[in-house]
């Protein structure tokens, strides 16, 4: 190392050290980088589950026949339902309005008769549509139990009267790759890791440069021999380390505490995370440099950093189902590439056809943003 | 005393309104979020690419494939030619599901023997995979019933078509809009109150207020009412947008809507003032508010139904004001929730408001020095 | 080291993007081995000039060379040779003293033995040695300033730029800072020191006087001071000094006047005769010539101080029945945990009196002040304002006091009118009374053209007027001023005090804290607070008398302040 390089390295090191000490001493930074990620992991591990556990339904049995009793038992036995029994529909309709029930199955007066005739739809189903997702799943489960019951019923009846089963049967054999039980936790937790990195990357860094302008220390820093590259790297390096640390902790807890599989390689995880973190850090610093005011910086960080990571990354909401303009928007924001890579690394393994393009796109984002950041970082006060 | 508070309120409103930046922040981000979220926050799965691998050349298989490609849920269907293409299609996320029909499918159907259809799903997107497999199951059931009746067999009762109340087409917008009104009102209400005291403290005007004849209670009221007012205006704007632009029905009573809003905003303002009294700087106020916001919104039933949570967590969410408010809003929008029901659901919110407001008032007095 | 000038400005102009011309065609040199003062009223362009010299801004026209390098093209060289201490000292408040020093040492490439030696020398030099592990944010104003200076000196620069280093710093720390700077100058460094305190300008070898972006004077301060020789007088022996001052300022030949303890100091127009006592409405007084100060000549150079009478003067206020002391503190004590910030503070302030609360940074002055206006509740003791107990009937007591803080705590994003309306409303004025109060003050302070302007964008002088207007809208019998003119230039300060004097003449009682000892001269009585106790209480002249000695026959109030604090510290050491 030439003496000149040594001086530069020392300056950089001093800036990194300064920033790190500031992080360590700021309780709110600790909250965002240390507490919130774990909290998010807990929330996504326990709280946010897209798998319907128990649907509260009422089964209205207008006349208790053997068939009706048998169907009622099928609903009661299913692990998907918490069943309430009623005699009249009017008794439970208000409960549907109040949201204490998600659906009502009505086994009508003439149920057995209709069944014997082979009439269509001998039972009636009412579903609360105010949450379409639950409604859709509830509808599917109710139908599933019904169909199942029907099959058993016809089978036992045909056995009794020894009539051949008419009609073909097509069975469906769903097989889910990477996540055989389709546990939503396994796909949500990798997404939570992405949210954590976004928080550290944008929200914290968006505040740091703005703070230096507000407190007048930027002026002092600019008057020293430190170059703008050094000043920027001095901010990026500590937050990068913090982000990687949070990534490691989040990943470890996801894998060990929540049993999410990890089928890819650590190298791939580190590489993609670095590209993403680099992008988000530069974005945060860019916001901070442009805003020069903590309040505006924070708002901007939420709008371009946190919210896209949450809603436009495909981790909770399916991107393919969004309208075309919003799908286009997700393409110009980094989180979708990272979430898709993380889900792949955790659940599928190192799939080059996913990771390579995503990684390259993230690197491209990082380079463009870094160029913009360097351009907008002044060497003087104007 | 009322006169003094009035001036404090006017001042707070002017301070928000006169500054171009803060005015913009009150209007632009909520609008962007409202529209982007409404369309993005959908758990419905449509237009998701799937693929079909049909190894059978028989008619039944062709028919079934036609039903699948014809379904409104699947507009992008890719055809695979060989088994070897299945893994890459799923791995690279080009297909969420591959429907695989074995070579003997038609023969088995013709013979009346059970025939299989294999669905290969991408478990990385567990929710979408589950929904897609549900759709496909339904298509196949219908096809099965159709085949049965066309052959003159006894008609099977088949699939039950449910009647769906409140949202007959299961339009996701109808449920997202009330939820967003709740979330964005939370965001704005918390931001305005969370920063109000911290900002005055940072700018040094807080001492000026304290040496005026205003009592701490008056200052607290003067800080709360503007936030309440702004929160109600924001919420009204979003309700109007939801109803008139996005076509979501509003079936409840408007006085009940405003009553619930006032109770909810009071609970929220309690939280905001607490944060504001706790924080020394605006930065801390922002970050603390955030620490409250994120879990409160995630555990409100917006991202996923509260019923799906473990029981202990469901108990915890009883303390979450956003959860209660969201239920009330959804009820008022879609179900025309009757007054007795609204009153019942307001009880926990009133309790939460009492707790947050007294806690913030206690902290505010304690931190005045 | 060459002896040529270290800063060479030629035709230097700076126009900001919004069109304001901050500096207009400056030509000057700064020589090594001396302190060059940069003085001028607020908005004169002092900070802009500092930043241009440091290369933080680029000139719009002309050029400036620092240490022989052009600021436009040789930025790295300038940053190696020039040290700059910005107004807020550029310290990281969440780093310790040692960490701040280490940071700047690394940034300036000071390593190895040199670093150990320099750090040690600077710690000794600034007296910060015992505090190396304390967070910079927890230091007092004076210590922050010394740390800022130490950081700027970690590699001995050829040129040191100090932007208003003494704002908010007590007289003792300020005197120490000067001692430090002189040591540097002796080693051949050039120091540029910008300040609003003119007693500091007198200590400079040379001063650059700026006004509205133009250079009015460039030369040794004595030369400027000499222009006022024979034109400065003291009026002594008048019992109504404030009235004498007001009368003097009505005379056309008087260009400037201030109160100095019991006396009134006047500057007369060049060639004019000093006014006679009858002219001043005080036939018993005597008018004696005195030697001029830099400030006299400076104010004269800028065209004189504010003339005429304050619009706030008027009829006498009715006395408050049943209260002989308007502000009364009895045994005020405040403890924070085991630390006693103020101990047994007792005093009474009568009607129409200006009472000053002085003391070093961290001595308990602000704690006392805050207890007196109800911002802090004392651990023991009571305080009464205009007869009402502050802690029992707080709202009532607070309604009787006006309050103005150093930062002019106005709402910057509200217009001037909205600020006035807000404060009048909060103080319970309504209807016609409110309109009249606002109209009266708008007229008095000539705020009419600015009513729609955001308070944050007002020129400093008007900001101060507005803050004062907001504090006195409800015509309070008591006015509390917390460092009201900190960092404010002499002209604005004079105007401010003319208003205060007029109110005091009407019977208003004023309590003021200040670091600025010329301001303390306006007080009738002063309590000097040190280490949480009142160590002296008396008129400015009493305090000066207490400090008079053979070696110091004519002590200034600053000498008295320092002498009394040092004596108290010595007594404590001995005890």
TrEMBL record, chain A:
Family: Belongs to the ABC-2 integral membrane protein family.
Primary location group: membrane
Keyword Ion transport assigned: no
UniProt-recorded name of the protein: ABC transporter permease
One GO MF term: ABC-type transporter activity
One GO cellular component, as annotated: plasma membrane
Coiled-coil region: none
Gene3D superfamilies named in the record: abc type-2 transporter like domain
Lineage: Bacteria, Pseudomonadati, Planctomycetota, Planctomycetia, Isosphaerales
Alphabetically ordered keywords of this record: Cell membrane, Membrane, Transmembrane, Transmembrane helix, Transport
Pfam family, one: ABC2_membrane_3
Entry annotated with the keyword Transferase: no
Protein topology in the membrane: Multi-pass membrane protein
Domain ABC transmembrane type-2: 154-380
Transmembrane segments: 28-48, 188-210, 236-259, 265-288, 295-317, 354-374
PROSITE patterns for the chain: ABC_TM2 (PS51012)
Cell compartment(s), UniProt: Cell membrane
From TrEMBL, chain B:
Membrane topology per record: Multi-pass membrane protein
Family statement drawn from the similarity comment of this UniProt entry: Belongs to the ABC-2 integral membrane protein family.
GO cellular component, one term: plasma membrane
Transmembrane segments: 24-42, 177-198, 227-250, 256-278, 285-303, 346-364
Domain ABC transmembrane type-2, first and last residues per copy: 129-367
GO MF annotation terms: ABC-type transporter activity
Subcellular locations according to the entry: Cell membrane
Pfam families given in the database record: ABC2_membrane_3 (PF12698)
Keyword terms of this UniProt record: Cell membrane, Membrane, Transmembrane, Transmembrane helix, Transport
Highest taxon above the source species: Bacteria
Organism encoding this protein: Tautonia sociabilis
Extent of the signal sequence: none
Protein name stated in the entry: ABC transporter permease
UniProtKB/TrEMBL annotation, chain C:
Keyword ATP-binding carried by entry: yes
Top-level division of the source organism's lineage: Bacteria
Keywords, alphabetical: ATP-binding, Nucleotide-binding
PROSITE patterns in the record: ABC_TRANSPORTER_1, ABC_TRANSPORTER_2
Keyword match Transport: no
CDD domains: ABC_DR_subfamily_A
Pfam assignment, any one: ABC_tran
Gene3D superfamilies: P-loop containing nucleotide triphosphate hydrolases
GO MF entries: ATP binding; ATP hydrolysis activity
Domain ABC transporter: 7-237, 327-556
InterPro entries: AAA+_ATPase, ABC_transporter-like_ATP-bd, ABC_transporter-like_CS, P-loop_NTPase
Annotated protein name in UniProt: ABC transporter ATP-binding protein
Source taxonomy: Bacteria, Pseudomonadati, Planctomycetota, Planctomycetia, Isosphaerales
């Amino acid at each position: 190392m030439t003496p000149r390089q040594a001086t530069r390295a020392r300056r950089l090191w001093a800036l990194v050290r300064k920033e790190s000490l500031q992080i360590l001493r700021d309780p709110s930074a600790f909250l965002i980088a240390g507490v919130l990620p774990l909290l998010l992991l807990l929330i996504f591990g326990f709280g946010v589950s897209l798998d319907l556990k128990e649907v509260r339904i009422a089964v209205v049995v207008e006349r208790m026949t053997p068939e009706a009793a048998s169907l009622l038992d099928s609903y009661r036995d299913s692990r998907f339902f918490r069943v309430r029994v009623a005699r009249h529909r009017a008794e439970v309709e208000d409960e549907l309005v109040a949201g204490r029930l998600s659906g009502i199955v009505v086994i009508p007066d003439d149920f057995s008769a209709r069944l014997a005739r082979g009439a269509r739809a001998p039972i009636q189903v009412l579903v609360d549509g105010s949450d379409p997702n639950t409604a859709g799943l509830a509808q599917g489960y109710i139908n599933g139990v019904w169909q199942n019951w029907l099959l058993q019923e016809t089978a036992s009846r045909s056995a009794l009267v020894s009539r051949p089963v008419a009609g073909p049967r097509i069975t469906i054999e769903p097989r889910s790759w990477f996540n055989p039980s389709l546990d939503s936790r396994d796909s949500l937790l990798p997404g939570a890791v992405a949210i954590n990195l976004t928080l550290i990357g944008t929200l914290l860094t968006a505040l740091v440069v703005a703070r230096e302008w507000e407190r007048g220390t930027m002026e002092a820093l600019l008057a020293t021999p430190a170059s703008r590259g050094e000043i920027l790297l001095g901010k990026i390096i500590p937050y990068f380390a913090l982000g990687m640390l949070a990534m490691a902790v989040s990943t470890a807890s996801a894998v060990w505490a929540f049993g999410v599989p990890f089928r890819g390689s650590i190298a791939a995880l580190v590489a993609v995370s670095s590209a993403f973190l680099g992008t988000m850090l530069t974005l945060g610093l860019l916001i901070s440099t442009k805003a020069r005011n903590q309040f505006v910086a924070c708002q901007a960080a939420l709008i371009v950093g946190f919210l896209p990571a949450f809603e436009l990354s495909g981790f909770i909401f399916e991107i393919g189902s969004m309208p075309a303009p919003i799908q286009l928007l997700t393409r110009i924001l980094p989180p979708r590439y990272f979430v898709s890579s993380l889900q792949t690394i955790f659940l599928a393994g190192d799939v080059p056809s996913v990771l390579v393009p995503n990684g390259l796109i993230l690197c491209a984002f990082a380079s463009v943003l870094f160029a913009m950041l360097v351009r907008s970082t002044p060497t003087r006060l104007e | 005393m009322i006169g003094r508070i009035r001036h404090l309120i006017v001042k707070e409103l002017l301070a928000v309104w006169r500054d171009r930046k803060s005015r913009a922040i009150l209007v632009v981000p909520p609008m962007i979020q409202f529209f982007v979220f409404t369309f993005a926050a959908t758990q419905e799965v449509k237009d998701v690419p799937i693929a079909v691998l049909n190894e059978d050349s028989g008619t039944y298989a062709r028919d079934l494939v036609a039903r699948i490609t014809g379904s409104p849920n699947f507009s992008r269907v890719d055809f695979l030619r060989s088994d070897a293409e299945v893994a890459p299609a799923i791995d690279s996320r080009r297909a969420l599901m591959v429907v695989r029909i074995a070579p003997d499918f038609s023969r088995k159907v013709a013979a009346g023997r059970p025939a299989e259809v294999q669905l290969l799903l991408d478990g990385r997107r567990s929710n979408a995979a589950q929904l897609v497999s549900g759709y496909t199951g339904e298509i196949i059931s219908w096809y099965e019933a159709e085949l049965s009746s066309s052959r003159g067999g006894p008609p099977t009762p088949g699939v039950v078509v449910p009647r769906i109340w409140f949202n007959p087409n299961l339009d996701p917008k109808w449920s997202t809009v009330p939820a967003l009104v709740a979330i964005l009102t939370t965001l704005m209400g918390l931001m305005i109150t969370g920063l109000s005291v911290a900002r005055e403290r940072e700018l040094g005007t807080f001492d000026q207020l304290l040496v005026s004849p205003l009592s701490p209670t008056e200052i607290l009221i003067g800080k709360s009412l503007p936030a309440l007012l702004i929160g109600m205006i924001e919420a009204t704007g979003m309700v109007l947008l939801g109803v008139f632009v996005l076509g979501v029905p509003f079936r409840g009573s408007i006085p009940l809507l405003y009553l619930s809003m006032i109770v909810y905003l009071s609970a929220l303002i309690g939280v905001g003032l607490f944060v504001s009294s706790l924080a020394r700087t605006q930065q801390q106020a922002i970050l603390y508010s955030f620490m409250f916001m994120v879990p409160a919104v995630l555990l409100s039933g917006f991202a996923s139904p509260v019923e799906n949570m473990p029981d202990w967590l469901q108990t915890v969410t009883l303390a979450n004001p956003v959860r209660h408010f969201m239920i009330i809003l959804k009820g008022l929008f879609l179900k025309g929730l009757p007054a007795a029901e609204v009153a019942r659901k307001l009880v926990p919110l009133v309790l939460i408001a009492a707790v947050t407001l007294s806690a913030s008032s206690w902290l505010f007095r304690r931190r005045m020095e | 080291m060459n002896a040529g000038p270290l800063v060479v400005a030629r035709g230097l102009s700076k126009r900001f993007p919004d069109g304001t011309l901050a500096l207009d065609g400056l030509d000057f040199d700064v020589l090594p081995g001396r302190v060059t003062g940069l003085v001028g009223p607020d908005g004169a362009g002092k900070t802009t000039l500092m930043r241009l010299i440091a290369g933080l801004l680029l000139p719009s026209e002309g050029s400036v060379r620092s240490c022989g390098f052009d600021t436009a093209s040789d930025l790295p060289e300038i940053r190696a040779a020039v040290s700059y201490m910005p107004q807020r000292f550029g310290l990281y408040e969440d780093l310790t003293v040692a960490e701040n020093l280490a940071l700047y040492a690394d940034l300036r490439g000071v390593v190895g033995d040199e670093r150990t030696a320099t750090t040690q020398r600077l710690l000794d030099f600034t007296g910060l040695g015992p505090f190396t592990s304390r967070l910079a944010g927890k230091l007092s104003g004076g210590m922050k300033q010394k740390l800022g200076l130490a950081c700027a000196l970690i590699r001995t620069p050829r040129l040191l730029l100090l932007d208003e280093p003494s704002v908010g710093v007590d007289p003792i720390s300020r005197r120490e800072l000067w001692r430090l700077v002189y040591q540097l100058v002796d080693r051949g460094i050039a120091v540029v020191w910008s300040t609003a305190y003119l007693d500091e300008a007198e200590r400079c070898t040379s001063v650059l006087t700026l006004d509205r972006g133009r250079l009015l004077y460039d030369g040794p301060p004595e030369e400027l001071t000499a222009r006022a020789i024979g034109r400065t007088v003291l009026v002594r022996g008048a019992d109504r000094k404030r009235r004498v001052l007001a009368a003097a300022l009505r005379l056309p030949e008087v260009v400037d006047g201030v109160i100095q303890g019991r006396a009134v100091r006047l500057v007369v127009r060049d060639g004019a005769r000093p006014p006679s006592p009858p002219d001043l409405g005080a036939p018993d007084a005597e008018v004696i010539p005195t030697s001029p100060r830099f400030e006299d000549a400076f104010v004269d150079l800028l065209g004189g101080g504010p003339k005429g009478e304050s619009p706030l003067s008027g009829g006498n206020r009715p006395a408050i029945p049943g209260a002989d002391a308007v502000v009364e503190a009895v045994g005020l004590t405040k403890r924070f945990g085991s630390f006693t910030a103020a101990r047994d503070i007792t005093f009474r302030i009568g009607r129409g009196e200006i009472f000053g609360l002085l003391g070093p940074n961290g001595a308990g002055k602000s704690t006392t002040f805050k207890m007196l206006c109800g911002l802090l509740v004392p651990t023991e003791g009571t305080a009464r304002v205009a007869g009402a107990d502050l802690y029992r009937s707080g709202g009532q007591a607070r309604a009787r006091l006006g309050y103005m803080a150093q930062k002019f705590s106005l709402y910057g994003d509200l217009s001037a009118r909205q600020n006035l309306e807000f404060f009048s409303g909060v103080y319970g004025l309504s209807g016609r009374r409110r309109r009249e109060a606002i109209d009266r003050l708008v007229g008095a302070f000539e705020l009419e053209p600015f009513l729609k302007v955001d308070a944050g964008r007002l020129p400093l002088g008007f900001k101060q007027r507005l803050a004062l207007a907001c504090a006195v809208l409800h015509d309070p019998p008591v006015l509390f001023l917390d460092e009201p003119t900190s960092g404010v230039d002499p002209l604005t300060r004079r105007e401010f005090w003319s208003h205060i004097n007029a109110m005091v003449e009407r019977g208003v009682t004023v309590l003021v804290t200040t670091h600025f000892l010329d301001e303390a001269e306006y007080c009738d009585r002063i309590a000097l607070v040190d280490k949480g106790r009142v160590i002296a209480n008396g008129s400015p002249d009493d305090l000066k008398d207490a400090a008079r000695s053979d070696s110091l026959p004519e002590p200034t109030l600053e000498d008295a302040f320092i002498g009394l604090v040092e004596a108290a510290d010595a007594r404590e050491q001995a005890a």
